[in-house]
Amino acid sequence: MRTTEYGMQFLSLASQVSDMKHDHYRQLLAISTLIELLVEKGILTPEEISEKASQMETELDRQLLL
Questions:
Q1: 2 to each of 5, 6, 7, 9, how far by Cα in Å?
Q2: Given Cys at both, which of 2, 23, 29, 38 links 44, Cβ 3.0 to 4.6 Å?
Q3: Which pLDDT score, from 0 to 100, does residue 55 have?
Q4: Which domain of life is it from (predicted)?
Q5: How many whole angstroms separate alpha carbon 24 and alpha carbon 28?
Q6: What confidence score (pLDDT) does residue 6 get?
Q7: Is the dihedral of CA 47, 56, 22, 7 positive or negative?
Q8: How many whole angstroms separate alpha carbon 64 and alpha carbon 57?
Q9: Residue 45 phi, psi dihedral angles, 5° rounding
Q10: pLDDT value of position 1
Q11: Please, what is the Cα angle at 22 between 3 and 37, to 5 degrees?
């Protein structure tokens, strides 16, 4: 009986991970699409996006070390 419980928990966890991977893909696609459109329309440059990403990463690292 215990093996069955573990098997069901594993299946549930695997299903949740699969759902998360699908959600992550969809979010990444939406963000990539928005970035591409902003660059195509001349609203932002790839350099501006890269610089802002670096700034945000630095700030996140700083906050995590507090």
A1: 5, 6, 9, 11
A2: 38
A3: 98
A4: Bacteria
A5: 6
A6: 84
A7: positive
A8: 11
A9: -105, 160
A10: 53
A11: 165
For the CA atoms of the chain, what is the radius of gyration? 20
Question: CA-to-CA distance for 61 and 54, rounded, in angstroms?
Answer: 11
d(CA 49, CA 6) in angstroms, rounded, equals 45
- Say which residue the tokens 């890269």 belong to: 50
pTM of the predicted model, to two decimals? 0.71
Confidence (pLDDT) at 66: 77
Q: Which two tokens stand for residue 22?
A: 């699908």
Amino acid at 35: I
